[in-house]
Amino acid sequence: MSLSSIAVQFEHLRAEHEQRVEVNVTSAYKLDSKQKTKLANALKKRLNREISITTQVDKSLIGGVILRAGDTVIDGSVRGRLNRLSEALTA
To answer: What tens-digit pLDDT sequence spans the chain (91 residues)?
Structure first.
């Protein structure tokens, strides 16, 4: 086991112990601090954990956000909705 994999595992276990989760938010546009706070509070209620948010911008989403928290992915983007609609229409 390499030192880097030990460090990754340690951070994962520490986050579990501290009841904290890292959430990666990809949005079509840059989020302001008020939007980040509102999102963090909603996620804190839903996941019952402290939330640490990192954000990135992907204009191809058209609108909305994609949330990644561990193994959980919530796709609320316009692009994702259009893809699901396309799949439903061609099925």
So the answer is: 688 888 778 777 776 766 788 899 999 999 999 999 999 999 899 888 889 899 999 999 999 999 998 788 999 999 999 999 999 999 7
Q: Which amino acid is at 51?
A: I
Residue 71, classed as helix, strand or coil, is: coil
What letter does residue 76 receive in the DSSP assignment?
Answer: -
**Residues 58/26, Cβ–Cβ less than 8 Å:** yes
Q: How many CB atoms neighbour CB 66 within 10 A?
A: 19
Burial classification of residue 53, based on how many CB atoms lie within 10 Å of its CB (0-12 exposed, 13-18 middle, 19 or more buried):
middle
C-alpha distances (whole Å) from 19 to each of 4, 51, 91 are 23, 9, 41
Cα 27 to Cα 61: distance, rounded to the nearest angstrom:
7
pTM, two decimals, is 0.73
